[in-house]
Please model this.
Amino acid sequence: MRPGERLPSDAELCREFGVSRMTARNAMQRLAEDGLVRRVPGLGSFVVEPPSHRYADRLMPFSNEMRHQGRTPSSRLLVREVRLASDAEAGKLRLRADEPVVHVRRLRLADDVPMAIETAVLAGRTAGVVMAADLEAGSLHEALAGEGIHLRRGVATIAAEAATSEDAGLLEVEEGDPLLVERRVIEDMQGRAIEATESRYPGRRYALDVRFEIEDGPGHREPA
Model:
């Protein structure tokens, strides 16, 4: 069902699936708690556009992430070029400043809704793969893996920033709206830095979930 459509009532669900009213009501409540439907007293339950979430300690290719959520991913290619690395890019990728890199900038969409502006700078050794890959309908990471470049681990920094006028135009938000900005460096199986990427997400459409443990505080004692 599409966002805005009205779901069957609890009574209709009971008849269709042969379940009790309590089972139907509990199921709808779970959908509401998960942010998938909105219950309006006297009117019914309506499908809402679910926010995109992923765990901060995992990076799934955007295309796979959106398909996992039942959405259709696509991209609009804004920039694809081979050029010399800047000093900052060379530092992140552990290259000399005069070495070539591949610069890719894309608008990432889910069901044709803008989800992120993604700017990636990749080590020059990937140029043949990246320049030939279908980066609008396909996945960059899948293209790299297909040529034996397997990305394994990385480090990321997450910050909040206000949307610039360019962000606003591409992401269809208002200038100054909050963005979730993730900057990461990803290594391959051999520990070589392959990709430095900045992803700019509209705050109301994307979120990162965090798993954590409680650190022992002063005076904490293990049970005997």
